[in-house]
Design a protein that fits this description.
With about 140 residues, this protein is mostly helical. The chain contains five helices and no strands. The chain is about 85% helix and about 0% strand.
Protein backbone atom coordinates (compact mmCIF):
# COMPACT_ATOMS: atom_id res chain seq x y z
CA UNK A 1 0.00 0.00 0.00
CA UNK A 2 1.12 3.49 -0.76
CA UNK A 3 1.00 6.53 1.47
CA UNK A 4 -2.29 7.71 -0.04
CA UNK A 5 -4.04 4.42 0.72
CA UNK A 6 -2.71 4.43 4.29
CA UNK A 7 -3.96 8.00 4.74
CA UNK A 8 -7.43 7.04 3.48
CA UNK A 9 -7.47 4.01 5.77
CA UNK A 10 -6.44 6.08 8.80
CA UNK A 11 -8.99 8.78 7.99
CA UNK A 12 -11.75 6.22 7.55
CA UNK A 13 -10.87 4.63 10.89
CA UNK A 14 -10.76 8.08 12.51
CA UNK A 15 -14.15 8.99 11.06
CA UNK A 16 -15.74 5.72 12.22
CA UNK A 17 -14.34 6.09 15.74
CA UNK A 18 -15.36 9.76 15.92
CA UNK A 19 -18.89 8.94 14.77
CA UNK A 20 -19.13 6.02 17.24
CA UNK A 21 -18.02 8.31 20.07
CA UNK A 22 -20.64 10.87 19.09
CA UNK A 23 -23.34 8.19 18.69
CA UNK A 24 -22.57 6.63 22.07
CA UNK A 25 -22.08 10.01 23.70
CA UNK A 26 -25.63 11.16 23.20
CA UNK A 27 -25.98 12.30 19.60
CA UNK A 28 -29.71 13.06 19.25
CA UNK A 29 -31.60 10.65 16.97
CA UNK A 30 -32.64 13.50 14.68
CA UNK A 31 -28.96 14.37 14.14
CA UNK A 32 -27.59 10.87 13.49
CA UNK A 33 -28.09 10.83 9.72
CA UNK A 34 -27.10 14.49 9.10
CA UNK A 35 -23.97 14.06 11.22
CA UNK A 36 -23.09 10.81 9.40
CA UNK A 37 -23.39 12.62 6.06
CA UNK A 38 -21.26 15.50 7.35
CA UNK A 39 -18.61 13.11 8.71
CA UNK A 40 -18.48 11.45 5.29
CA UNK A 41 -18.17 14.82 3.54
CA UNK A 42 -15.45 16.22 5.78
CA UNK A 43 -13.51 12.94 5.73
CA UNK A 44 -13.66 12.96 1.93
CA UNK A 45 -12.39 16.55 1.91
CA UNK A 46 -9.45 15.69 4.17
CA UNK A 47 -8.70 12.48 2.29
CA UNK A 48 -8.68 14.28 -1.03
CA UNK A 49 -6.31 16.91 0.35
CA UNK A 50 -3.97 14.24 1.75
CA UNK A 51 -4.15 12.28 -1.51
CA UNK A 52 -3.26 15.40 -3.47
CA UNK A 53 -0.36 16.20 -1.12
CA UNK A 54 0.94 12.65 -1.51
CA UNK A 55 0.65 12.78 -5.29
CA UNK A 56 2.10 16.25 -5.87
CA UNK A 57 4.50 16.36 -2.93
CA UNK A 58 4.66 20.16 -2.98
CA UNK A 59 4.90 22.37 0.08
CA UNK A 60 1.66 24.08 -0.87
CA UNK A 61 -0.27 20.82 -1.20
CA UNK A 62 1.06 19.66 2.18
CA UNK A 63 -0.03 22.98 3.68
CA UNK A 64 -3.56 22.51 2.34
CA UNK A 65 -3.61 18.93 3.66
CA UNK A 66 -2.51 20.06 7.13
CA UNK A 67 -5.21 22.72 7.01
CA UNK A 68 -7.79 20.06 6.16
CA UNK A 69 -6.67 18.03 9.19
CA UNK A 70 -6.97 21.14 11.39
CA UNK A 71 -10.49 21.51 10.05
CA UNK A 72 -11.25 17.95 11.17
CA UNK A 73 -9.92 18.73 14.64
CA UNK A 74 -12.01 21.89 14.80
CA UNK A 75 -15.23 20.14 13.84
CA UNK A 76 -14.62 17.16 16.11
CA UNK A 77 -13.97 19.51 19.04
CA UNK A 78 -17.16 21.39 18.22
CA UNK A 79 -19.18 18.15 18.01
CA UNK A 80 -17.82 16.77 21.29
CA UNK A 81 -18.54 20.07 23.01
CA UNK A 82 -22.07 20.22 21.61
CA UNK A 83 -23.21 16.61 21.77
CA UNK A 84 -21.15 14.86 24.47
CA UNK A 85 -19.80 17.15 27.15
CA UNK A 86 -18.94 20.82 27.51
CA UNK A 87 -15.21 21.31 27.08
CA UNK A 88 -13.26 23.96 28.99
CA UNK A 89 -12.45 26.88 26.71
CA UNK A 90 -14.15 25.10 23.81
CA UNK A 91 -14.58 28.26 21.76
CA UNK A 92 -10.83 28.93 21.96
CA UNK A 93 -10.00 25.41 20.75
CA UNK A 94 -12.68 25.35 18.06
CA UNK A 95 -11.95 28.79 16.66
CA UNK A 96 -8.17 28.57 16.83
CA UNK A 97 -8.12 25.26 14.95
CA UNK A 98 -10.77 26.55 12.52
CA UNK A 99 -8.85 29.74 11.72
CA UNK A 100 -5.58 27.79 11.46
CA UNK A 101 -7.30 25.46 9.00
CA UNK A 102 -8.64 28.29 6.90
CA UNK A 103 -5.30 30.13 6.87
CA UNK A 104 -3.32 27.02 5.96
CA UNK A 105 -5.68 26.03 3.17
CA UNK A 106 -5.78 29.51 1.64
CA UNK A 107 -2.03 30.12 2.06
CA UNK A 108 -1.29 26.74 0.50
CA UNK A 109 -3.58 27.49 -2.39
CA UNK A 110 -2.04 30.94 -2.94
CA UNK A 111 1.54 29.88 -2.36
CA UNK A 112 1.92 27.62 -5.35
CA UNK A 113 -1.15 27.41 -7.52
CA UNK A 114 -1.03 24.22 -9.51
CA UNK A 115 -2.28 24.53 -13.05
CA UNK A 116 -4.55 21.98 -14.62
CA UNK A 117 -1.77 21.29 -17.15
CA UNK A 118 0.68 20.36 -14.39
CA UNK A 119 -1.81 18.02 -12.71
CA UNK A 120 -2.72 16.49 -16.08
CA UNK A 121 0.96 15.91 -16.90
CA UNK A 122 1.53 14.23 -13.53
CA UNK A 123 -1.52 12.01 -14.02
CA UNK A 124 -0.56 11.09 -17.59
CA UNK A 125 3.02 10.35 -16.51
CA UNK A 126 1.70 7.84 -13.96
CA UNK A 127 -0.62 6.35 -16.59
CA UNK A 128 2.21 5.97 -19.10
CA UNK A 129 4.52 4.41 -16.49
CA UNK A 130 1.78 1.95 -15.54
CA UNK A 131 1.35 0.95 -19.23
CA UNK A 132 5.06 0.41 -20.05
CA UNK A 133 5.13 -3.30 -19.18
CA UNK A 134 2.16 -3.83 -21.50
CA UNK A 135 3.87 -1.95 -24.33
CA UNK A 136 7.02 -4.13 -24.11
CA UNK A 137 5.15 -7.32 -24.97
Amino acid sequence: WGAAQRAWLMLTAFALVAYAVLWNGGLPAAMQIPVAIYVLAITTMAGTALDRATTLGTASSRMVAFGALCFLVSDLTLAVNRFITPLPHASVWVLSSYYAAQCLMVMGWLREPVSVDREAKAASRHLVEDQRPMLRR
